[in-house]
Task: structure prediction
Amino acid sequence: MTHFINIAQFSGDQLFSLLKRAQYLKHNKQYPTYPQHTVAQLFYENSTRTRVSFEMAALNLGMRVINIDLDHSSENKGETVEDTITNLAAMGIDYFVIRHQQEGLQQRLAQELDYKIHIVNAGDGTGSHPSQALLDMMTIMEYKPQLADLNIAIVGDVRHSRVANSFQSLCKQLNMRRVTLICPKVWQPKEVLHGEVTHNLHEGLAQADVVMCLRIQRERLLAKDHLDINSYRRDFAITPQSLTHAKKEPLIMHPGPLNREIEIDSSVADGPQSVILEQVTNGVYARMAILEFLKQQRAL
Ligand code: NCD
Result:
């Protein structure tokens, strides 16, 4: 069975057609329907946007959706994730949208479980978040369609960001060469997937057409990673002042949730260059394209 685990599993052409399909679905609201399929959502980490967006996507495609209440599931009695999924699959559930704190879990489940199911990665620890990368790119394409020429700046806690990881991978697969990761030294990535790293916000912003601001992921910070929030704000926050160093009118993006007045000022997040809510809107269509793609693979 085909799964949706990370960006690197797809070719540039496949990713581009997923993006085009998501755009088509957004503008032509005639959706195919698949009422014989059921999606289970297993979110072991908090989520607002991603969970509801996958739910909207599945409902738009006429699929049934079951949100598993993990606070009251048998995993609290010691059942493994594998057994939970195997039992749900035995009831006829065939799509599993999973967010989990353990990096690589969805990949492992996809390899080990022998059922006729599709695993969809909705975020694995600090690993990847491939549906977010697609909705981010879809949003960029709407405003700046000449992707190859764009200069992308990703700013903030790059080290702990699955959003940054998947987005770098997507830029790589689409041959977008100009990616700059702007972060304090303590939050520089262990492995750069694509692009260059700088610790200087002003330099990094100078040529940026797109500024993707990341959330400070307090829940993932280890004691040694801690950085004084005031010094972070001074050196890395996206504010009207710091944007005076950027190119004229860059797109402002953020995956959400926002720490307002910490990594980004409200006047920027809610300002005329912000496409943050457009990202959220596009998430539904990007996820419809993903579910539909998996359904089509099933038919092959
Ligand atoms: C991101 C996530 O959970 O990885 N949020 C999201 O899915 N929209 C980013 C974050 O939590 O910072």
In short: The first strand starts at residue 38 and ends at 43. The mean pLDDT is 95.
